[in-house]
Glyoxalase (Streptomyces fructofermentans), 128 residues
Amino acid sequence: MVHVLSSRTLLRPTDPERSRAFYGQRLGLPVYREFGTGPERGTVYFLGGGFLEVAGRSDAAPSPALKLWLQVADVAAAHDELVAAGVEVLRPPRKEPWGLIEMWITDPDGTEIVVVEVPADHPLRHRP
């Protein structure tokens, strides 16, 4: 069995500076590390228990099959903070039939990001 020590999602944006401004300034993700120089340098952000690396450049937007799932403690507060930071909200927070409270946003290349709150009484919070 593979023993995974760490993991990260890699994004190759069409406009690296615009994506760094989105993830670092608008979403306010803290920087784990930076590497390289120039406009295509790499920036790795903390994502709770994982990392998001924005590095390099792509001529095409990421596949619509790629989605980011970001769990927060309070999705209503996250909504207010993101709107104040100029982030377009595709769908405001609402409770889903499966019990999670979800809000949808996108990054500058159209990568969908679901911002999720797991309510205290949700089964994801408890193990039988």
